[in-house]
Amino acid sequence: MSVLPSGAQWVVRAGEYSGTVVSVGGGLRGLSWGGREVVIGYAEDQPARAGMGQHLMPWPNRVTDGKYTFQGVEQQLYLTEPPRSNAIHGLTRWANWERVDDGTDESFVELAHRLHGQPGYPHQLDLTLTYQLDPTTGLAITARATNIGASDAPYGFGSHPYLTVGRQIDECVLEFTAESWLEVTPDKLSPVGLAPVAGSQYDFQQAHKLGDLDIDNAFTGLPSTWEVRLTDPETGNTARLTSDTKWMQLYTAGALNRAGLAVEPMTCPPDAFISGDDLVVLKPGDDHTTSFTISV
Fold this sequence. Notes:
45% strand, Beta-galactosidase, Chain A, domain 5, mainly beta
């Protein structure tokens, strides 16, 4: 019996919304409203590419050279972004997750994965993801991590959906508010420092077209709750992501021919394992929860 590259498939429905959750990575394979895509999806007989709908635990974004020191101990992660010699997007994107709810609510799915210690990350975490569709407010995704090990564990969460309104993003209007953007090096995309958004090429507090602007940067500051909105000015179609995280990465998806905009809620910035910036430290028995919502 063959197994699909994206694993088991679970459909969630509510009102005009329909989505598909998969066991590989616990990812979101697709989400639509009224028959149109809200996030870029992929076929069930394909693996996710370019991070589509994947969740990034126990760190989002990159750890430069995969090297960091935590509580005085040097660690070396596997380099999962070989061209840049980085460790990228955590350890659970390709792991198998199990469904743990009873399956009686067609608008709800809960998944679980136990992350065991490995080279570079010798910690034990129990991880859960819940998907809750509401016909009015859209798809709420909640991630929880519990330290079930005997030592403190560094932790961060991120997710990697690509919002779409059915056309290339060059013609779309973007709107979001932030105080600062994170400058990175051109070769390894390692953090350099924060710069003000106001007056920069990344200032979208007043909504306007993206044009050919390239973005692959993290943003922070100002909003207590993030809201990033993408709009097709011709049809009025929108896709929106709101989040309780302190950071948001935006990526204009050159890898996908700019068909969508990656809007990536993150609890910490790139290289947080190195810098310690906004890094969560889970003591034994501690847990951490964060949520975000995708809607039209």
